[in-house]
């Protein structure tokens, strides 16, 4: 009994000190550095033009990725769980691919596909479509790295629920859209929201893939993480940390939302 | 117009290489309560789902109310389907579950309220209308599923193993309840089961499936008394299979006087009369001698397992008669045997009975 208690206390101590050193301390340091030269400088580094542009671009890419992946995620999870077809497992692993490959490689992949070396390049050039080193490339890269999140959250939930409820609704005369809206969607609501928060968090923080395709054009193709890196490399620590604190704040908000969703869906499940 | 409310003609269905339905043909008259009975994997659910339109046959025609419905989608066939798992909408209350089909028909609120409350009254769940499916017992969920299927007033009610997930005692009550309710409503119904007692107790007619085929269609009594195929004879009732019936007294020749040598058959416990000695036996001359292997107390009778001419048979004995015990000799009279010839069964009566009656 006593030994048990000792083990528990030391494990808790270990975990807490680890979390403190690895997570809390850095966050505090971010805050301290960001405010090192006073609040005026802090506010200034956030409201200055390029920072605002980066923030807007990050939000744009995030919104685009979340929108696209919500639709894609629901559709693919639907396909993977409600239909039988050849190559289903193959499709499932393809969707997981962005998890497996490094974001930098993904970025290079888009450069190959749409950049100067691509056979598509002359066509894109003629049509005046700019993808790499431009906003479309950043959005594409963000979508790519966050592709599996929502599908992954939905598939197990939809698998567990089976097709019975949908078939019951169909046998009563409901059409496909009604079935989706009234039966499927309410059943996957919490899993979907959970997937959306994960996707949002990842999209906002994405660095590798975006860094490759962005071309680092200040005030044009820089997202928040890229902007932070540039500031940091210019030894502009205060500004770098100030901008970083924005990402930290977003992350904390997402964390709270995420926990709330988890708590809500757990409550639902325990009622079942 | 056909005389049948539901009719399947030459239906075939495969899943990949697997033939789940082979040349299915049957018709169901209006207002009948029909049991689709067969072993697991014999294709019962497949038949039900094809009638419902949740699965399409590869070939053949399905008629409901005289109309060919192969190309009619599930929701327009006028059927109510009760799923094995109930498939209640988990995020809706009992009331909303039952109302779902009616809202799809764009009925007005007042009508829906009235109808749903009526149905909940019928299934005895009026008090539970605001609960969620997760807050109900298995039997209650089953009744919600039943009410939900009935709400849009279907012409045909399909139930897939409606009692499978319910414990034995409640199941018995529900069976009776379902039978009376369906009879009162007069709605044509098909229910799937792999429990022969259930089918015999509940159904007006039974359709027996085996390996994707229909083996026999008939009333429970017909099927019990006159099984058409060896499969049915063995599947229904308590059956003892024999490889060669000719070795038993009174069964050496067929009705047409040909030898029964090598012909297989089925004996049921109720075909046996087990006597302790000659004075107890009603037909001592025609009886076989057997040795008691085991006895089991069965409440209202005793089951006696005997070895007779190398075969293990079992029959029942009244509690009032002299008890038999392991190792005792006994006389066994076999009243009849279902004999098999080319997968067709014939009932052979013991010839000794005819002879004895002539002597008396
Ligand atoms: N969607 C499907 N894909 C592949 N095979 C299937 C499918 N549905 C049914 N089968 C196969 O068809 C056969 C008949 O299935 P069915 O569900 O009709 O049997 P059942 O008589 O209802 O059995 P049970 O009593 O176990 O429910 C089974 O061998 C099953 O594996
Ligand atoms: Mg089945």
Keywords, separated by commas or semicolons:
heterodimer, A: 272 residues, mainly alpha, MetI-like fold, globular, B: 360 residues, alpha+beta, Rossmann fold, OB fold (Dihydrolipoamide Acetyltransferase, E2P), 2 domains, 6-stranded mixed β-sheet, 5-stranded antiparallel β-sheet, 9 helices, 19 strands, 26% helix, 32% strand, elongated, binds adenosine-5'-triphosphate, binds magnesium ion
Detailed description of the structure:
- The complex is a heterodimer of chains A (272) and B (360).
- Chain A has helices spanning 2-34, 38-47, 49-82, 88-100, 103-114, 121-126, 135-146, 148-161, 164-171, 176-205, 208-214, 224-233, 237-271.
- By secondary structure, chain A is mainly α.
- Chain A has one domain: MetI-like fold, CATH 1.10.3720.10.
- The radius of gyration of chain A is 23 Å and the shape is globular.
- The relative contact order of chain A is 0.14.
- The mean pLDDT of chain A is 90.
- Chain B starts with a strand and ends with a helix.
- In chain B, helix 2 packs parallel to helix 4 and helix 3 crosses helix 4.
- The model of chain B has no long low-confidence stretch (mean pLDDT 90).
- In chain B, strand 1 (4-15) and strand 2 form a beta hairpin.
- Chain B is 26% helix and 32% strand.
- Chain B contains nine helices and 19 strands.
- The radius of gyration of chain B is 25 Å and the shape is elongated.
- Chain B has 360 residues and is an alpha+beta fold.
- Chain B folds into two domains: 4-228, P-loop containing nucleotide triphosphate hydrolases (Rossmann fold), CATH 3.40.50; 240-353, Beta Barrel (OB fold (Dihydrolipoamide Acetyltransferase, E2P)), CATH 2.40.50.140.
- In chain B, the strands form four sheets. Chain B has a six-stranded mixed sheet with strand order 6-7-8-3-9-10, with helices on both faces. Chain B has a five-stranded antiparallel sheet with strand order 13-17-14-15-16, with no helix packed on it. A four-stranded antiparallel sheet of chain B has the order 2-1-4-5, covered by helices on one side.
- At the A-B interface, helix 9 and helix 10 of A face strand 6 and helix 2 of B.
- Bound molecules: adenosine-5'-triphosphate and magnesium ion.
- Adenosine-5'-triphosphate binds at residues 15, 18, 20, 38, 40-46, 194 of chain B.
């Amino acid at each position: 009994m006593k030994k048990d208690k000792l083990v528990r206390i030391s494990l808790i101590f270990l975990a807490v000190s680890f979390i403190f050193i690895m997570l809390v301390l850095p966050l505090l340091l971010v805050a301290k550095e960001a405010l090192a030269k006073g609040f005026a400088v802090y506010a200034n580094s956030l409201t200055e033009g390029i920072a605002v542009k980066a923030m807007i671009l990050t939000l744009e890419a995030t919104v685009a990725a979340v929108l696209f992946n919500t639709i894609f995620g629901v559709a693919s999870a639907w396909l993977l769980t409600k239909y039988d077809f050849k190559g289903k497992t193959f499709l499932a692993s393809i969707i997981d691919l962005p998890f497996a490959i490094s974001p930098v490689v993904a970025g290079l992949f888009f450069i190959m596909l749409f950049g100067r070396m691509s056979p598509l390049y002359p066509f894109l050039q003629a049509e005046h479509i700019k993808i790499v080193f431009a906003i479309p490339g950043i959005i594409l890269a963000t979508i790519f790295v966050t592709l599996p999140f929502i599908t992954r959250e939905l598939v197990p939930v939809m698998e567990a629920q089976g097709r019975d409820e949908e078939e019951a609704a169909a046998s009563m005369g409901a059409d496909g859209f009604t079935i989706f809206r009234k039966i499927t969607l309410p059943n996957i609501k919490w899993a979907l929201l959970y997937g959306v928060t994960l996707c949002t968090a990842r999209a906002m923080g994405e660095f590798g893939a975006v860094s490759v395709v962005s071309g680092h054009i200040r005030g044009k193709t820089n997202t928040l993480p890229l902007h932070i890196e540039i500031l940091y490399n210019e030894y502009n620590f205060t500004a770098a940390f100030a901008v970083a604190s924005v990402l930290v704040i977003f992350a904390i908000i997402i964390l709270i939302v995420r926990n709330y969703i988890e708590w809500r869906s757990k409550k639902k499940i325990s009622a079942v | 117009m056909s005389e049948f409310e539901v009719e399947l003609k030459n239906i075939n269905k495969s899943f990949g290489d697997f033939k789940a339905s082979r040349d299915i043909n049957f018709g169901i008259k209006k207002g009948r309560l029909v049991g689709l009975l067969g072993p697991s994997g014999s294709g019962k659910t497949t038949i039900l789902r094809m009638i419902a339109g949740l699965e399409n046959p590869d070939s053949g025609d399905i008629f409901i109310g005289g109309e060919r419905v192969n190309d009619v989608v599930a929701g327009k066939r006028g059927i109510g389907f009760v799923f094995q798992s109930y498939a209640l909408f988990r995020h809706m209350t009992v009331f909303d579950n039952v109302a779902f089909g009616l809202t799809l028909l764009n009925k007005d609120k007042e009508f829906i309220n009235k109808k749903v409350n009526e149905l909940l009254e019928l299934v005895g769940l009026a008090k539970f209308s605001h609960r969620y499916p997760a807050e109900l017992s298995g039997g209650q969920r089953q009744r919600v599923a039943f009410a939900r299927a009935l709400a849009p007033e279907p012409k045909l009610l399909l139930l897939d193993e409606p009692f499978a997930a319910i414990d034995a005692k409640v199941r018995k009550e529900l069976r009776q309840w379902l039978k009376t309710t369906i009879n009162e409503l007069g709605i044509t119904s098909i229910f799937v089961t792999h429990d022969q007692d259930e089918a015999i107790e509940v159904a007006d007619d039974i359709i027996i499936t085996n390996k994707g085929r229909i083996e026999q269609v008939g009333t429970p009594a017909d099927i019990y008394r006159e099984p058409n195929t060896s499969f049915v004879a063995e599947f229904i009732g308590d059956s003892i299979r024999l490889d060669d019936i000719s070795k038993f007294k009174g069964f050496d020749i067929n009705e047409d006087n040909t030898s029964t040598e090598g012909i297989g058959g089925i004996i049921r416990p109720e075909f046996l009369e087990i006597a302790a000695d000659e004075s107890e036996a009603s037909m001592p001359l025609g009886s076989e001698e057997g040795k008691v292997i085991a006895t089991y107390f069965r409440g209202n009778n005793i089951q006696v397992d005997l070895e007779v001419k190398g075969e293990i048979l079992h029959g029942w004995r009244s509690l009032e008669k002299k008890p038999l015990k392991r190792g005792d000799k006994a006389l066994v009279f076999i009243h009849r045997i279902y004999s098999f010839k080319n997968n067709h069964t014939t009932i052979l009566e013991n010839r000794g009975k005819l002879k004895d009656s002539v002597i008396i």
